[in-house]
Amino acid sequence: KNVSERSIDPATRAMLLEADRAGIETAWDRFDKQQPQCGFGILGVCCRNCNMGPCRIDPFGEGADRGVCGATADIIVARNLLRMIAAGAAAHSDHARDAVLAFKKMAEGEAEGYQIKDGAKMNALAAEYGISPEGRSPEEVALELANVLLSEFGKQEGPITFTRRAPAKRQSVWEKAGIDPRGVDREIVECMHRTHIGVDNDPVHLLLHGLRTSISDGWGGSMIATDVQDVLFGTPTPVMSESNLGVLKSDEVNIIVHGHEPILSEMIVAAAEDPEMVALAIEMGAKGISVSGICCTGNEVLMRHGIPTAGNFLQQELAVITGAVEAMVVDVQCIMPALGNLAGCYHTKFISTSPKADFPGTLRMEYHEEKALETAREIVRAAVENYPNRDPGRVNIPREKSGCMVGFSAEAILGALGGTPQPLVDAIVSGSIKGVGAVVGCNNPKVQHDFGHVNLVRELIRNDVLVVTTGCNAIACAKAGLLLPEAAKEAGPGLRPICEALGVPPVLHMGSCVDISRILVLAAALANHLGVDISDLPAAGAAPEWMSEKAVSIGAYVIASGVYTVLGTVPPVLGSPEVTSVLTKGVEGVVGASFAVEPDPFKAAKLMIAKIEEKREGLGL
Ligand code: BF8
């Protein structure tokens, strides 16, 4: 095995060598064992939606060209894609629901340790729903807002409120196409209904519903998650931190929070700072307690508290292999079930906390808002008491870590610009900044870890494209030093002086994957300021290493919002010429944007820059 081919990240390479030495399997090894992967699955032409099947279409045209019910490859591929969107939208939105439920319990005085951290944002949200704070306590406003937000999920008729944040032109695009969404729960249920045997069998009709569902995620579920979390935990502002496995401490209790929801991890951060817990850690022989994050839970606490990030998706197993992690605390999403077995090979306690998500080999410490802080303290205590079990002979923490500046919420960006997008618009008009690239998404062992992320982003900033980032791309950028103000040196001659004058990096970390809603809000602010649609902006999106169903929902709502998007790994649609053609061409006529697939990040950057140039011309720039 050549570890250099697996990742560009030196810390990851070091830990992969260590895994080999210890005879431990990682996702990369399991990926190799899956080769060759099923060709029918890759093309998306396998259907398991009823028990007459499974059916599959022969892509070479020599065998079956229809399933038992008569579904063609086009129908099967479209149905499968719709189900991926439904699952992705469900993941984001169910996360959002839990955030709102925690908010509601806080308002009712039943959520220990939670409070309204950003009252101004809460009042602004309340105003969007016509709720007046006049003569009422913040908790009363919070309760009414929580109830109205909860009702958004199941809204049966009429558009959901946050879609009205989009420019009027975008709203009419959605109305005209019949994809202005209702509540995300309803749209997801309809996805499942339509893809049941014998319901919707028109590929274009299915795909349009996919767009509608994805909008109910991006401008609904995900946006609610972001905004409510900001109210509860604070709207991020720029803060310095560190990234990569080198943030783990050889002489402190290491607790990693991993998954997606900040609801519990916020409490763990608080509990780990408790002097009583720190004293206990010292009693156990450690110098203190160090919390770090992985994946989007990590991004949440990184953005709000500067808690270091230990790595992105493909580094979760490697963190345990350092032998220095006392507790890997997980909630939901992107958590490998492999962690259970792996933790068993080390002293690491693998602690699952969500009532919705259990894994083999975990210590269950279920979290409920009523006693969130108490549970967090129990978890921290379990980690601290595990420190003496650490085998110093097996500790191998890579040296690599990089500084990063994070915390660029839409509010922080607009605040830094003086409360208006005008300075950014001026820079775009003058050509100093050519446009904005949104680069997001996962890791995937199908491609060299972080190669697509880092090279695409470098190429964009070199060409004076300001980059906004979230999720595992943001972590890749942090590790590569691209989130430091000094990274301005890598930017082109137009972007560099602007970053240097403002003291910000050319790559702005906007948060976790639900926080792509922040990018939508920023895009809407720019478009509204200019009186144009989002699809007119010199902007493009990319997910160079995507793998999750959430990324499919995201990609769909990004193009449905009018932003051209380049995918670095191929979605399972190539078995259908019709679906492929709709996604890469036809959909442009409906929503003003389409997908491209380009695994080479240098070529992907060219595609994005060409689109940005095209949009500049369209605006007469
Ligand atoms: O929601 S980028 S691997 S961690 S799915 Fe998961 Fe993908 Fe990472 Fe965050 Ni997003």
Give descriptors for this structure.
621 residues, six-stranded parallel β-sheet, alpha/beta, 26 helices, binds FE(4)-NI(1)-S(5) CLUSTER with Oxygen
Quick overview of this protein structure:
This protein is α/β, with parallel strands linked by helices and 621 residues long.
Structural account:
With 621 residues, this protein is an alpha/beta fold. The chain contains 26 helices and 16 strands. A six-stranded parallel sheet has the order 6-5-4-7-8-9, sandwiched between helices. A six-stranded parallel sheet has the order 13-12-11-14-15-16, sandwiched between helices. The longest helix has 35 residues, at 73-107. Bound molecules: FE(4)-NI(1)-S(5) CLUSTER with Oxygen.
Silhouette: globular
Strand content range: 5-15%
Bound molecules: FE(4)-NI(1)-S(5) CLUSTER with Oxygen
N- to C-terminal separation? 50 Å
Average residue-wise pLDDT: 97
- The Rg value, from CA coordinates, equals 24 Å
Spatial order of the strands in the main sheet?
Answer: 6-5-4-7-8-9
Task: Report the oligomer.
Answer: single chain
The low-pLDDT segments are: none
Q: Write down how many β-strands occur, each being a DSSP E stretch of 2 or more residues.
A: 16
Structural class: alpha/beta
Helical content band: 40-55%
The number of helical elements comes to 26
Largest sheet: 6 strands, parallel
